[in-house]
């Protein structure tokens, strides 16, 4: 049993430590820890999970976020984990404790994977988790050597390496808990169950319940475990290496187009779709107009193009032949695709745009949104060198050729071209805001794109 006094001591430690972590989204914002829930995941109580509710803003502007914080609680210091020490407490549940960042402790990962493999639960009806094995799910490698990925990530991923004959795994621990299905789990599982080899093979997932931001019980996903594609390279690296060395990337882009259309076809067949009625298209146009307004407010440099941008996205309202809406990737770019020698292009991270609410990210959408995302990404890759020549344009056409060949229709023609032009502009506007906030040195790339896209008559 965990005690309330100990919960408070742990919360006090995390209050200091969490803001320094990569996954903490409230950096630079005054944020208060409002609630802590804590539960052991294993019998020894070493592996634990904390749900930390953080409040930012005051009064009407107050916003709450629940973070999932894996910790391991050890009775003595562990020199192997010195780099992952969160802090030391004189008394946690009746004994002195050394608290470590859970993903760095193999014991924590073992506890998580045991819940998945055994389909067992831990915790209580108010804060608890339950493991699930995917159909034909991959087994847990015996040695359990683990490594936390160090990339710029909003979640935390732990790689579990494997011995000869075993499959290595990757466990992605979602950091922000949101009520409802996480599309990363639902969409990838649906694809894998349908036999689609364009996603990593699944092992399982963890879902559970916690006290939600409004104080009522929330239910959702905590973690997702899949095959780790060792030796693969992400498409951003492959593409930027090609552009830097002046190598053509069209053949790979064409294959990527084909892979994207294959995934879209399986998603349309396996998960709910919705006809693109005039009302639905009007709602889509409203959403795009909102985004224009949001971007122009956030980045004043966009003011001059606001009217043209509104006209471009409003054209969606008048489309008469739109494909049905379906589940999509939602945040598709070169960094979300891996190239594996054995499997070709494999798609990752179906969580959708992190800035959108989870419920919105699970709604059927235009598959062309993903096409637009990847076209923007070719432009980014091309912009990493001063003189890219026609590299980006060739990738773009090759990707669309590959996509059309599998999809059976060409996004460059008819009403689809109107939708694609609106969605490309929408993505570029989002990127302007993203870069202004995160990477001002990169702002030129989407800003130039907005002007270029608007000067194109399509
Ligand atoms: N199955 C996998 N095999 C190999 N590498 C992976 C796999 N899944 C994720 N990665 C690596 O981890 C990175 C982050 O994964 P991702 O699912 O995009 O997490 P996040 O949602 O936190 O951004 C990817 O860009 C990729 O480099
Ligand atoms: O962290 P996420 O992968 O969910 O996405 C965010 O960060 C991306 C950058 O890492 C950003 O992508 C933009 O830059 C990429 C190059 O670094 C480029 O390939 C993408 O096309 C471009 O959108 C993404 O927009 C943002 O949501």
Description:
By secondary structure, the protein is α+β, with helices and mostly antiparallel strands. It has 2 domains: 221 residues, no CATH class; 223 residues, Aminoglycoside phosphotransferase (APH), C-terminal lobe (Aminoglycoside 3'-phosphotransferase, Chain: A, domain 2), CATH 3.90.1200. The chain has 12 helices and 16 strands. It has a 7-stranded antiparallel β-sheet. α9 runs antiparallel to α10. The N and C termini lie far apart (64 Å). The structure holds adenosine-5'-diphosphate and ligand LMANGFYV. The site of adenosine-5'-diphosphate (ADP) has 20 residues, from β10 and β13.
Features:
7-stranded antiparallel beta sheet, 16 strands, globular, 38% helix, Aminoglycoside 3'-phosphotransferase, Chain: A, domain 2, 12 helices, 6-stranded antiparallel beta sheet, binds adenosine-5'-diphosphate, binds the ligand O=P(O)(O)O[C@H]1O[C@H](CO)[C@@H](O[C@H]2O[C@H](CO)[C@@H](O)[C@H](O)[C@H]2O)[C@H](O)[C@H]1O, alpha+beta, 458 residues, 2 domains
Listed once per kind, the bound small molecules are: adenosine-5'-diphosphate, the ligand O=P(O)(O)O[C@H]1O[C@H](CO)[C@@H](O[C@H]2O[C@H](CO)[C@@H](O)[C@H](O)[C@H]2O)[C@H](O)[C@H]1O
DSSP strand count: 16
| Rg over CA atoms | 23 Å
The CATH class designation of the largest domain is Alpha Beta
Termini separation comes to 64 Å
The largest sheet, given as strand count, sense and whether it forms a barrel, is: 7 strands, antiparallel
Numbering strands along the chain, what is their spatial order in the largest sheet?
6-7-12-13-10-9-8
Catalytic activity: D-maltose + ATP = alpha-maltose 1-phosphate + ADP + H(+)
Keywords: ATP-binding, Carbohydrate metabolism, Glycogen biosynthesis, Glycogen metabolism, Kinase, Nucleotide-binding, Transferase
Pathway: Glycan biosynthesis; glycogen biosynthesis
Pfam families: Mak_N_cap
């Amino acid at each position: 049993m965990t005690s309330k006094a100990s919960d408070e001591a742990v919360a006090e430690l995390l209050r200091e430590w969490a803001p320094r972590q990569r996954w903490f989204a409230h950096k630079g914002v005054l944020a208060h820890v409002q609630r802590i829930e804590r539960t052991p995941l294993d019998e020894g109580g070493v592996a634990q999970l904390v749900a930390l509710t953080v409040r930012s803003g005051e009064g009407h502007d107050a916003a709450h976020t629940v973070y999932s914080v894996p910790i391991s609680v050890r009775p003595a210091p562990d020199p192997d984990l010195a780099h992952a020490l969160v802090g030391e407490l004189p008394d946690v549940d009746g004994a002195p404790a050394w608290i470590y960042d859970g993903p760095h402790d193999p014991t924590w990962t073992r506890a998580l994977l045991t819940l998945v493999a055994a389909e067992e639960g831990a915790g209580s009806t108010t804060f608890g988790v339950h493991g699930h094995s995917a159909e034909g799910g991959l087994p847990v490698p015996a040695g359990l050597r683990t490594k936390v990925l160090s990339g710029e990530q909003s979640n935390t991923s732990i790689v579990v390496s494997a011995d000869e004959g075993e499959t290595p795994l990757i466990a992605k621990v979602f950091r922000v808990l949101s009520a409802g299905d996480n599309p990363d789990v639902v969409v990838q599982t649906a694809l894998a169950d349908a036999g689609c080899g364009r996603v990593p093979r699944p092992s399982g997932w963890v879902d559970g319940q916690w006290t939600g931001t409004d104080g009522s019980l929330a239910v959702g996903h905590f973690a997702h475990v899949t095959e780790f594609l060792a030796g693969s390279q992400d498409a951003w690296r492959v593409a930027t290496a090609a552009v830097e060395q002046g190598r053509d990337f069209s053949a790979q882009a064409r294959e990527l187009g084909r892979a994207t259309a294959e995934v879209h076809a399986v998603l349309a067949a396996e998960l709910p779709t919705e006809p693109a009625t005039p009302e639905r298209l009007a709602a889509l146009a409203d959403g795009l107009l909102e985004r224009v307004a949001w971007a122009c407010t956030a980045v004043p440099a966009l003011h001059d193009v606001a009217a043209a941008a509104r006209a471009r996205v409003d054209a969606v309202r008048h489309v008469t032949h739109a494909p049905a809406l379906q589940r999509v990737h939602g945040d598709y770019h070169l960094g979300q695709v891996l190239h594996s020698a054995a499997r070709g292009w494999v798609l990752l991270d179906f969580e959708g745009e992190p800035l959108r609410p989870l419920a919105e990210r699970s709604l059927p959408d235009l598959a062309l949104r993903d096409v637009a995302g990847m076209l923007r990404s070719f432009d980014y890759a091309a912009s990493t060198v001063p003189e890219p020549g026609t590299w980006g344009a060739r990738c773009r056409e090759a990707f669309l050729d590959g996509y059309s060949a599998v999809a059976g229709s060409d996004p460059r023609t008819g009403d689809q071209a109107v939708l694609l032009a609106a969605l490309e502009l929408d993505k570029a506007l989002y990127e302007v805001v993203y870069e202004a906030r995160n990477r001002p040195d990169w702002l030129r790339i989407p800003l130039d794109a907005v002007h270029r896209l608007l000067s194109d008559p399509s």
